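We store sequence with structure; for instance:
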Amino acid sequence: MDKLSEITLPLDPSSAPADDEIDVYGVTHVGMRRKENQDQFLVCSLHEQMEVHLTSLTGLPSAPRSGDRLAVVAMVADGVGGVGGGPQASRLAVEATTLYLSQCVDAYYASEDRDRDEFATELTGAAFRAHDHLLEAQKADPSLGVFATTLTIFIGVWPKVYLVQVGDSRYYTLAGEELRQVSRDQTVAQELVDSGALEPEQAAGTRWARLLSSSIGGTESHPVVTVIDNDWNMVHLLCSDGLTKHLSDDHIRERLMAMTSARQVCEDLLQDALDAGGRDNITLIVGRAVPKVGAP
């Protein structure tokens, strides 16, 4: 993978990181047993136009940086379906979501009354737009059968992070020594845990852990938006379940705490998952702010 150009989170000059104070990287791998990679990922920044910095996709429109950065966006999609269906599902979801978010963020900053709660609610439209796009694609090409995808989206509007999530691709934060899974797995296993019918330690080993209760393009789609505060001491991780099937939260936490760069920790975590079996496609994005030497 090419190294990601450094980007900045927007937009308060008094506290937001500068261009050379952002360390972000992402990788995807087919794994050791799969024949095709059904995962997709994207990192881009939204200015007057969208600038793509790193992605597994080809052909996404991008323009040179122009004007203030309005937001930074990162997303992971893990496709589900037959041959051709899974990769198409994740690709279409990322493409449709990216274009919608660009319009949504533009509208937010153009408004005189910037209501963050209303903005968070509007972000569910990104998931529904992708969901409708996949349903239309299934009708247009029935030979692909039914296909679906997870979709986990990070939208950084400094100093807030907006998370939009459908499915079980996870988003974690590391603050100090505390690793927190911000997203909630939308699987049948998690539903059974929440209802008390299954113990948490049993969930990962059941077939229900592989069955999504909500997805983009599936029979049920229930996007969840979560808003958290961002700060200089926080590390962010988005990943498909190809990573978390093999690596415990404790292992991930130790790797993130010892990281020297986003690229290094992405490559180390990927190799760890491959060494542990690599049964599925593996995708992850890691980002953090790194103050310049001598900065106050």
About this structure: DSSP finds eight helices and twelve strands in the chain. Confidence is low (pLDDT under 50) at residues 1-14.
